[in-house]
Amino acid sequence: MLLSMDDVNVRIGGQTILSNISLTLEADRITTVIGPNGAGKTTLCKVALGILQPTSGRVQKAPGLRISYVPQRFHIDSSMPLTVRDFLSVSLPFARKRRLLGIAEALELTEVEHCIDKNLHQLSGGETQRVLLARAITQQADLIVLDEPAQGVDVNGQELLYKLISRIRDIRHCGILLISHDLHLVMADTDNVLCLNGHICCAGHPESISNDPAFVSLFGRRAADTLAIYHHHHDHHHHADGTVAEGDHCSNS
Ligand SMILES: Nc1ncnc2c1ncn2[C@@H]1O[C@H](COP(=O)(O)OP(=O)(O)OP(=O)(O)O)[C@@H](O)[C@H]1O
User: Which terminus in the chain has less CB density within 10 A, N or C?
Assistant: First the structure.
């Protein structure tokens, strides 16, 4: 277990924002939180990051847990010259003690090695997010928290970003808490989905979620079908002529 929440409640100014949240984040697993605007997704991130204390309930973290945060957007004043190399070096002295992956390797892994000498404010939205992912790698994060990291990134960039996130999970064996609206893009690699609307409406593997009445009432039949169809396309392999490979199966048709 990397981090767990047990019956967490958050009330701010008399408003209940999160109620009865229980979850466990594990190494090697991507947990995706989905939910409508105002559902409490960012608040949940803040509780996980330890920057917001719950009104009640318990948050437990593995001893020495290192969390890295990738925000929705990242603004840096254009008058402040800071290269990608310098930005990633900031976390080096401490991280080096933990046999960190070098800056160049991390940038290569997130496919932005060509940006190493660029100024942060010269980067595109997609490049910025990939530099932030590289930072999480150099920091040797045990848990990476990403709050809608693909906002403002074009579709190809989004797909690449989500592929990189699952590749980092596979290589670094870290846990990932991902907030996303891009259901069809994130679901293939998600191990666990939490549907949030102030409380957890339903949770589980994407395939089981798509059949859950709570999911359907929150996101609509169309989203549920998208999820189901998506998994149909990914639970078997085709031969070149389109026939299904032996031993594979179609769970949805
Ligand atoms: N510091 C605060 N003070 C008062 N209300 C707050 C505070 N932070 C969040 N809220 C309220 O809590 C609710 C949940 O906010 P939160 O930002 O966690 O939602 P979200 O699911 O991330 O939304 P979105 O998808 O729109 O980004 C909203 O109604 C918001 O107005």
Answer: C
Please report the ipTM that was assigned to this predicted complex. 0.97
Using CA atoms, how far apart are residues 25 and 23, in angstroms rounded to an integer? Answer: 7
Mean pLDDT is lowest, of 12-26, 181-195, 219-233, for: 219-233
Neighbours of 246 (CB within 10 A): 7
Domain ranges within the chain, ordered by starting residue:
1-63+183-253
Q: What angle do CA 109, 112, 117 make, to 5 degrees?
A: 125
The alpha carbon of 41 and the centre of ligand 1 are apart by a number of angstroms equal to 8
- Kindly give the number of the ligand 1 atom that is closest to the alpha carbon of 179: 22
* Paired residues of 146 in beta bridges: 70, 178
Report whether CATH 1.10.3710 matches the domain 1-63+183-253.
no
Q: Considering the entire predicted model, what is its pTM? A: 0.85
Query: Across residues 227-232, what is the average pLDDT?
Result: 54
- Is 250 a residue whose pLDDT tops 50? no
- In a 10 Å sphere around its CB, with 0-12 CB exposed, 13-18 middle and 19+ buried, how is residue 199 labelled? middle
Substitution candidate for ligand 1 out of 8, 9, 12 with most atoms within 8 A of CB: 12
